[in-house]
Amino acid sequence: MTRFVVISGCSGGGKSTVLAALARRGYAIVEEPGRRIIRAEEQRGGTALPWVDLAAFARRAVAMALDDRAAASQAPGAWVFFDRGLIDAAAALAQATGDDAPLADLSLCHRYHRQVFLTPPWPEIYVTEPERRHDLSAAVAEYDRLLRLYPTLGYEVVLVPKVSVAERAAFILSTLAAPDGPADPVAD
Question: What is the pTM of this model?
Answer without folding.
Answer: 0.85
